[in-house]
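Review this fold:
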Amino acid sequence: MRVLIVEDATDMAEAVAIRLGKSGMACDLAETYSMAEDFLAVQSYDAIVLDINLPDRNGTELLQSLRQKNDRTPVLMLTALFSVDDRVSALDLGADDYLVKPFDQRELEARLRALIRREADQKSDQVQLGALSFSPATLAATLNETPVDLTRREAMLLGLLLRNQGQVLGKQRLYDGLFAFDDIDVGLNAIELYIARLRKKLNGSGVAIETQRGLGYRIHACG
């Protein structure tokens, strides 16, 4: 799960990114409208956290630009001053949700997960495949109600595969969902390592991660 945070209050943005990172979201930080445009030109996101008051332009202009391009990425707006008129205007422009500063980071995290579930038409926070159950909120997995010991990256990868059941996800797509631009020291081949680790931990569970050569990976239940 990859999130773009567009916020010029650097300390707050970094604190949010750290919190979301611990919960399995890879975050890129943009301090200005122009930086956000640069990120969006080369990367797609599962959600965007967008401050209204940016130093170079208004965040609602970026929101409007996205929707005019038919980009339906969920957008959660942030602002220190959010009148009823502000809320109505942002929602009419295509915002999916909003939070008024100061806010509790737990609420931001929960709202982001709700937006992403809504986009995926997923009603519950629990994702199920055969005997495997996974909670994106806690990055916890169980097999037949027995906990599976996963590292944070392994859990992030499992969650990404499970949210896209039935789809073949290429190595680049998986990489983009796990790592932010700051993770430049991690190569694309890291995906193969994490896939191998997950397969070992899911061995004999009735859940398999299939390799489709030249295309990518697909998770599915097997007999």
